[in-house]
Amino acid sequence: MELGRIVYERSLIRRESEPITDPRGRPIGWLLDTRLAMLDGDLFKQVGSVLAAKLSDRGVDQVAGYGYGAFPMVGAVLASAGEGCFNGGFVREQRKAHGRKRLVEGPLTTTRSVAIVDDILNSGRSALRTLAWLRSEGFEVEGILTLFNFSWGDGKERIESEGLWVDTLLDLNLREEKAPSRDPSISMA
Fold it and tell me: 13-25 burial by CB neighbour count: b if 16+ within 10 A, else e?
């Protein structure tokens, strides 16, 4: 079975399994909780290796992420064996008020380009916010690497309009109106 499909199946939560809601508190039929897959040791290693290879192919050796979905992805890339050496960082929502007072944590350097990693690309709002924060700190961002791209959203186009590449483990062709089956209409990127 393809890795993207395995990650999808491990991440899929359906209303029949437990009550789930959208950000406004309304019941929804399904959601993807990528932390379930990414915090599994075996999948963590497998996904990290694939992501690291994709980044290496593009000549990128620094990754940054914002939010709980991106944090294990940064760690997985850094932990990937045999894929070269990467630097990783985490982007804060606001500059820390004390200590080093950083917006971007970690050993990233502005002398080399960076790629954003994020679990899901839908509207692109989160990725664009992360892009703005990184650029404000002097980083040159080359692209974004995601686990899933919701093909019905306009996030990919919004990111590409900023001059960045977008790469994904799996493109999903699902619709909010229908709860996906365990064998959804998906296509590998």
Answer: eeeeeeeeeeeee
As a whole number of Å, the CA-based R_g of the chain is 16
**pLDDT the model gives residue 186:** 45
- CATH no. for 47-188: 3.40.50.2020
Locate 18 and state its tokens.
Answer: 């437990």
User: Is residue 167 within 8 Å of 147, Cβ to Cβ?
Assistant: no
Q: How far apart are CA 96 and CA 121, in angstroms?
A: 26
The H or E element containing residue 118 is strand 114-121
d(CA 29, CA 52): 33
Its pTM stands at 0.88
Domain definitions of the chain by residue range: 47-188
